[in-house]
Amino acid sequence: MYSKDGENYFIVDAHIALWDARPENQLNVHGKQFIDCFYDYHRNLSPETEVWPYEEYLYQGGERLMKDLFTDGYVDHAIFQPARLKEFYANGFGQTEEAFALTQANPDKLTYNHWFDPRDGEEGLDQLRADAERFGLKGVKVYTADWHGDSRGWKLNDPMAYRYFEVCRELGITNIHVHKGPTIRPLDRDAFDVADVDHVATDFTDLNFVVEHCGLPRLEDFCWIATQEPNVHAGLAVAMPFIHTRPRYFAQIMGELMYWIGEDRIQFSSDYALWTPKWLVESFVDFQIPEDLTEYGPLTTAQKKKVLGLNAAKMYDIPVPAELQLPDADEPATGPRQPESADLAMA
Asked: What pTM value is reported for the model?
């Protein structure tokens, strides 16, 4: 929980990872390229006081994760969103066993989501069923630009991907987190394009599609899709640190998201360990859209509370103490913002 000026905020960090990018786990030059790109984002978008040494960044470990999130970072609950990257790392990038063990030891603080890749075919479907039973999955993270043999990406509306979404539906895995954000070396930028979100959200209206990184740098495309598809949500991973380096750009991101989809479908995340939540939570609570950006309204305390935790808590049925809820907390968080006639005239 975070407290400021008499207000208390329930914090859900909706996109975290526990990775191992040490040289002994790198299969090839691409493993080094990937983590070096991560580190460049971290170093260039963080306050100087929050920059980690490179060697520590390669692997943070569970003990440090718990301290950074829950002891120092104000987080009440966090959700693992791992990436496999099996072509780059011998034991994968996201550390399944260590992350799941942390979740089992701290079920009140951590939720473990797993991954799937439709290019694994029928065997992958069997593995998804086994993973759902073992991990008790409510959500999965998919990485459409991940490499797989000679393939350098896939689309959400591929026929085999639909088989996986159908199995998710059968298994009660209702939350599909999709990396659709800035490219990461050596992955291909176009494999993160948001266009396929529109197709799949229409065909699986009973699943939530959380577009991580809110489609950046394709924010406009994302907003036009999400305003028409009420089961599409915006994850703020990677967007959040611009609050420090490019505050007006961050104001535009938040202003556009609020205009198009509203406060109920936006989720905070630090994208740990790209960044740590403490300074991001503090900065967001203090943040306000500049008055000269007159096309956007101010961010209210209630809106910030929803973004920082209440939206993700509702999606994942995470208990929220009564004193940290809003009066309308029992209202659904998945309905689209209905634009006023004046809004439509301006669009």
From this structure: 0.92
